[in-house]
């Protein structure tokens, strides 16, 4: 892996990148479906539906497919959303856990004084509580959730907003994520990206999205940027 130059800011995705949250998301989705008297699904199936935010996840569950049905009534979706929020809020961090290497890597990056931020499609009502539950909140100067701005990844708006807020150039930002949404957002914004081979990418190889770097863990990210950080 070649060395990365001039990193002044790192944006991390959350679900599938730092945290394996699929077990709790699956529990909440299946509890929602049970309340609605609808078919439930294995966790492995629901994992392939994660990554585009809660609305898409709920609609995929109601459709029983990654392809969202066009005949989902708004009243059904709103009922399902209320149930999902209730169940997920009650059990946000029961089975969720950090991926291997995350805690150590964030601690080392912090010691290198690398400013770190979160850019996730997860709704804000869940983002901060999850970061706090897993003792991650301390590492991030800025947290942008899926509903923080009018548009979310793969739209470039969150990354554009981030560099303006943090007063850095787009070329100095590195987006780190597990999904094509992260890579597409980075390409559209004009910053570099690192794609992680684990996580939630709809069963696709992250390399197919064309990130600048590919890694199997955040430990590789740490090695990549050592000596490349600029003040």
TrEMBL record:
Gene3D superfamilies, per the entry: HAD superfamily/HAD-like, Putative phosphatase, domain 2
GO annotation, cellular component aspect: cytosol
Keywords linked to the UniProt accession: Carbohydrate metabolism, Hydrolase, Magnesium, Metal-binding
Cofactor: Mg(2+)
Binding residues annotated for Mg(2+), in chain numbering: 13, 15, 178
EC number: 3.1.3.18
Record pathway: Organic acid metabolism; glycolate biosynthesis; glycolate from 2-phosphoglycolate: step 1/1
Active-site feature positions: 13
Swiss-Prot/TrEMBL catalytic activity: 2-phosphoglycolate + H2O = glycolate + phosphate
InterPro entries in the record: HAD-like_hydrolase_sf, HAD-like_sf, HAD-SF_hydro_IA, HAD_2, HAD_sf, PGP-like_dom2, PGPase_prok
GO biological process: carbohydrate metabolic process; DNA repair; glycolate biosynthetic process
Superkingdom in the source lineage: Bacteria
Single annotated GO MF: phosphoglycolate phosphatase activity
Keyword Metal-binding: yes
Protein family according to the UniProt entry: Belongs to the HAD-like hydrolase superfamily. CbbY/CbbZ/Gph/YieH family.
Function statement: Specifically catalyzes the dephosphorylation of 2-phosphoglycolate. Is involved in the dissimilation of the intracellular 2-phosphoglycolate formed during the DNA repair of 3'-phosphoglycolate ends, a major class of DNA lesions induced by oxidative stress.
Name of the protein this chain belongs to: Phosphoglycolate phosphatase
């Amino acid at each position: 892996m070649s060395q990365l130059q001039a990193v002044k800011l790192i944006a991390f995705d959350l679900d599938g990148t730092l945290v394996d949250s699929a077990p709790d998301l699956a529990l909440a989705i299946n509890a929602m479906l049970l309340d609605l008297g609808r078919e439930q699904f294995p966790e492995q199936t629901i994992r392939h539906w994660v990554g585009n935010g809660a609305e898409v996840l709920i609609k995929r569950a109601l459709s029983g497919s990654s392809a969202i049905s066009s005949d989902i009534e708004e009243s059904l979706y709103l009922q399902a959303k209320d149930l999902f929020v209730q169940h997920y809020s009650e059990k946000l961090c029961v089975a969720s856990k950090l991926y291997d290497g995350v805690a150590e890597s964030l601690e080392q990056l912090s010691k290198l004084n690398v400013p770190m931020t979160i850019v996730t499609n997860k709704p804000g009502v869940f983002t901060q509580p999850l970061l706090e539950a897993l003792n991650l909140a301390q590492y991030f100067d800025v947290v942008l959730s899926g509903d923080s701005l009018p548009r979310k990844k793969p739209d470039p708006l969150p990354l554009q907003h981030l560099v303006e807020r943090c007063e850095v150039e787009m070329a100095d930002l590195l987006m780190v994520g597990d999904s094509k949404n992260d890579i597409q957002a980075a390409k559209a914004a004009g910053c570099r990206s690192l794609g992680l081979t684990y996580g939630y990418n709809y069963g696709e190889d992250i390399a197919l999205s064309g990130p600048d770097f590919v890694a199997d863990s955040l430990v590789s990210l740490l090695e990549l940027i050592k000596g490349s950080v600029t003040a």
